[in-house]
UniProtKB/TrEMBL annotation:
Pfam families: M20_dimer, Peptidase_M20
Keyword Transferase: no
Organism: Saccharothrix ecbatanensis
Keyword Transit peptide: no
GO biological process, one term: proteolysis
GO molecular function: metal ion binding; peptidase activity
Lineage: superkingdom: Bacteria
Record protein name field: Acetylornithine deacetylase/succinyl-diaminopimelate desuccinylase-like protein
Domain (Peptidase M20 dimerisation) ranges: 205-362
Keywords: Hydrolase, Metal-binding, Protease
Length: 470
């Protein structure tokens, strides 16, 4: 494969074809269904799918088919089937998603969630980095291989629209499409990233997720706090007591045994190599307030915390008035959204049952506890790299990035990955992407590093060619 031709093709596609279309995709408020219950009537997910479908349909890929697949009452998926140029019968499955996190307030001057802004090699806007670029990069990698005289196996690109909601519809689609996918021997997921923009980062594990909304109710309506306090227990205090069953508030250690696993030694060694390659990044990329310090001084421990140990975050609340509206009222209820990140090999079903028991058994004062919006997803731990893939990544590090590739134990979840190992036990996995520690996914000022996205695209092209020739 002509490497110079590959680089020219990929960079040209990003500058001339991808950037204008991706910018227009940013402008579509395709909020994930968990955050937009009326997604079907609003039509934004469908608009995002149609926008990318139109771009894909115009590509010069002989024999390729582009299809919107939508099962009854489920969010749509976009399926692209590109015939291989190599005499192989297996399939490369390439994944991304088109749904987005909510906009969130507090964007910087001149920026906004649905306003694409190109500034200093960055494309700002919701969904630019997470994960609107994935489908474009997948097609550009395939086109790059062909233009450079390389070869590739059949490639199927699957873009879903429910990832940010935990991919609740994806199992049904994978079952529905499995006969069409064929023998999947390589999975390429472009919904990840790493600790800098100087090298290729391979995600080798993903944490699982348990999320539950807990409502503690003590009375049917608000009461004058001067008359009711001391008689009626505080719903907030009861919620605090219940949280103490789940987490050590002094250390942050999760107290639910089912959420803990033994960390494999090879993953610990990978974390040490990653930290040594990017010292200070884990702490330096955080916008600390005041004199706040990290939970540990050892960056290896911080990386293991973020990738292999369970954590609890309270990500939302209800029943608490804004300060300006807070009168002297004993509130009837407190609602907290509890988000647990689980180790990659933890059993999310066992974890959620243990959490449920802890929150609903022997509740202080006999208060009412309601659990709703319960979600659970297992994590993922990658299989050992095949020699051909490891050798290819070594070559990519030298030729594309001029820096050795490294691995990352990603603290987030990609439900798609957890669904595949059982269905395709012999497949190799390339989970990577252009996201860095300060790309602001899920928060204000999300941005995509365009040069890194182009390099990742080129790297995927090299892997596709090597896979077909292995």
């Amino acid at each position: 494969m002509d490497r110079s031709a590959l680089t020219r093709t990929v960079r040209g596609l990003w500058e001339d074809d991808i950037l204008p279309s991706l910018s227009a995709l940013v402008a579509i408020p395709a909020i994930s269904p968990s955050f937009d219950p009326a997604w079907a009537s609003h039509g934004h997910l469908a608009a995002a799918v149609e926008h990318v479908r139109g771009w894909l349909a115009d590509r010069d890929l002989p024999g390729a088919t582009v299809e919107v697949v939508q099962l009854p009452d489920l969010t749509p998926v976009l399926l692209v089937d590109v015939p291989g140029t190599a005499p192989t019968s297996d399939t490369v499955l390439m994944y991304g998603h088109l749904d987005k996190q909510p906009p969130v307030g507090g964007w910087g001057e001149g920026l906004g969630p649905w306003t694409p802004v190109l500034r200093d090699g960055r494309l700002y806007g919701r969904g630019s980095a997470d994960d609107g670029y994935a489908g474009y990069a997948a097609i550009a990698a395939i086109e790059g291989v062909r233009q450079a005289g390389g070869t590739h196996s059949r490639c199927v690109i699957l873009l879903e629209t429910g990832e940010e909601s935990g991919s609740p519809d994806l199992p049904a689609y994978l079952d529905h499409l499995r006969p069409r996918l064929g023998d999947v021997s390589l999975v390429v997921c472009l919904d990840s990233g790493g600790n800098d923009y100087e090298r290729m980062w391979l995600t080798t594990s993903l944490r699982g997720l348990v999320q539950v909304t807990m409502t503690v109710r003590v009375v049917e309506g608000g009461l004058h706090s001067g008359m009711a306090s001391g008689i009626v227990p505080s719903s907030f205090r009861i919620a605090r007591q219940l949280l103490d069953r789940l987490e050590d508030s002094a250390t942050g250690e999760v107290l639910v045994p089912e959420t803990h696993v033994e960390i494999p030694e090879d993953r610990v060694l990978e974390v040490r190599d990653a930290v040594a390659s990017t010292p200070g990044v884990l702490v330096g990329s955080v916008p600390w307030a005041g004199g706040t310090q990290a939970m540990a001084s050892d960056e290896v421990e911080l990386a293991l915390n973020a990738g292999w140990r369970p954590t609890l975050s309270v990500t939302g609340a209800d029943g608490l008035p804004a300060p300006d509206d807070a009168g002297n009222v004993l509130r009837p209820f407190t609602t907290l959204v509890l988000s647990f990140r689980l180790p990659p090999t933890a059993d999310s079903s066992a974890a959620i049952e243990s959490i449920r028991r802890a929150l609903t058994t022997d509740v202080p004062y006999g208060a009412s506890v309601e659990l709703s919006r319960i979600e659970a997803a297992d994590g993922w731990n990658a299989p050992t790299l095949a020699p051909w893939l490891r050798e290819t990544l070594d070559r990519v590090g030298k030729e594309v990035f001029d820096a050795p590739w490294r691995t990352v134990a990603l603290g987030g979840s990609i439900p798609f990955m957890g669904l595949l190992p059982e269905a395709y036990p012999e497949a190799q996995f390339l989970v990577t992407g252009a996201v860095g520690p300060d790309s602001n996914c899920h928060v204000p000022d999300e941005w995509l590093h365009l040069a890194q996205a182009a390099r990742i695209t080129e790297a995927v092209a090299v892997v596709l060619d090597a896979h077909a020739r292995r």
